Amino acid sequence: MTIVGGGVRQEAFKDALSERYLSYALSTIMARSLPDVRDGLKPVHRRLLHAMRQLRLDPDQGYKKCARVVGDVMGKYHPHGDQAIYDALVRLAQEFAVRYPLVDGQGNFGNVDGDNAAAMRYTEARMTEVAQALLEGIDDDAVDFRETYDGEGSEPVVLPSNFPNLLANGATGIAVGMASSVPPHNVGEICDALSHLLKTPNATLVKLVDLMPGPDFPTGGVLVEDRATITDAYSSGRGSFRVRAKWESEDIGRGQYQVVITEIPYQVQKSRLIERIAELMHNRKLPLLGDIRDESADDIRLVLEPKSRNVTAEMLMESLFRNTEMESRVSLNMNVLDADQVPRVMTLREVLQAYLDHRHNVLVRVTKHRLEKIAERLNVLKGYMIVFLNLDEIIAIIREEDDPRAVMKKRWNLNDAQVDAILNMRLRSLRRLEEIAIRKEIAGLEDEQKSLKGLLKDKVRRVKYLADEVADVKKRFGKKTELGKRRTEIREAPTVIEVPLEAMIEKEPVTVVCSDKGWVRAIRGHGLVVDELKFKEGDKGRFVLEAETTDKLLVFATNGRFYTLGVDKLPGGRGHGEPLRLMFDLGNDADVVTLQVHSPGAKLVVASSDGRGFVVSEDDVIAQTKSGKQVLNVKGDAEAAACTRVTGEHLAVLGRKRKLLVYPLSELPEMSRGRGVVLQSYSNDMLADVATFDLEEGLTTMTGDRHRTFTKQELAEWIGKRAQAGRRVPRGFPAAPRFS
Question: pTM of the predicted model, to two decimals?
């Protein structure tokens, strides 16, 4: 770095950028984004309250225009935009945003729907009793003051805070490289925890959580987090809480019901929530919900109508909790500025202790300030007593001497304060009654002085004093007051309600069409005329299945793997569909053997081209991933060749050279995975198809549009044992080596 002419400094761009960004980061952390653990406020909120106090906007006084407040804050304390200051003021007045509002607003201050407040020239404000409690003692040297940004005035570094504002109202902020998120709590419970901590300095976190079981949000709702998770969050200072909307079921007769939402999670805009639900309904993502209506007035009332009376209210709400902001998570990150203005993440116990330490410091400072005032007053009163004892002489000195100050100071050994007080006395104060009042005041002040000195020397008395302060806060703002009643209900973590797939998907009849080249689609309705279906040039139909949108498709491939696909995930009937193999991980070296609708509880026979196979339950072949599930193991040149659902007690096996073998299905083992056993022996042949049937009803085959059933007597020569070679098919059997 070098200095050149004109005072210009040359330095590396990297160094200059690093230095300035560090300054910006520190400014953001210290003076904008993170709250102070002692009063729970950021600078803009602290300046707002201080300015409102300067304007005498006490709870028992009249309102003043918000523009006046914002102007004072911006001109004297906070050199930022007026809209940012007004937004901060508005939030402090919103009952749905702040658990214990610090500003009493008059006019339109927004609503839970997300509507903005009116312009500052239309709204008015004054402080609440909670804000007044935060400022108690500020005139008694309770806290330090610093110069304002222009050096023309002073502002408090922190407020005395005779109210646990950080935990009671919470705070959020995003700084550079760090963030803070403290949810609001019930002040009655906070006071219980503070009282316990004063009595038991080594109190365990578990006991504190017993007294403070969880957040208390201004919009109510239901906290459904388990106790262990809440304790872990408070013990580390980081975590999250799951909050759900509060609802109830209303019977509307004829076996029907509707669900009414009376409270929604914290910081969720009602209008945005309704729009999101309507969007999901339009996209068929909420098939259980029939309609939603907003019947809210001053309170919240969202009416939900189920699509079917067969759907329970619990199941309906579970689908909403999973897909909408009816359930949301509120984060906990108690990253705050400590008393030394160092940002760090605190545990619940550390936050409570930091507040008590601050109140202790305030008590000591206020007590010392009061002692100084008492000493000054006693000094003046003792000068007054000299007046009454030597009234005639003092009058003579004042009338006759050129410099009465010097004469009185020398005559009675007075100090400047006493002499000034004597010379400024009014004549009517020289009555006899005033002397008696002064003697009483001196006695009272001396008693108070003795008591306060004892308080400074006795820590036990100071702790008792703090405990009385906490009890008074609880009495003023606790659960017995209208403002302090707990709003958020705390329940055990809910049991998981499994919503069946058919309940989550709108059930509609569809026809699944898959072409020979693997293009699949789902056409609405059943009973389609197959001959009228159109395919790409050079392609033709292969599978046509009637299904419901709630069904699952089982795809068996030549690699021996099963793939599962929801019918609702298939493309619509317009166009030619999409390639089936792109819907899961089916390589180009494998092909589809069968495509069928899953039937829970059914069994399948799977077989490979080398004539091996076994029986497997359909429930065991369901694949959870796109890579499928390996069921039939194949080796060498062999590949999966057949898959059929079990519909009878006998198995028919057909080779490509048209040799047929029939034997009881009981000769096959039931497995979940493997190569299986030999179904039919081959010499220069491979398996072509398998089928199951009831021997008494016969084996039905299909040639074109014609059906042919071979009776038990006709199949007598082909009934044998597993693994035999079989015989040539009987007369009338289809030319193609397939059963259908």
Answer: 0.70
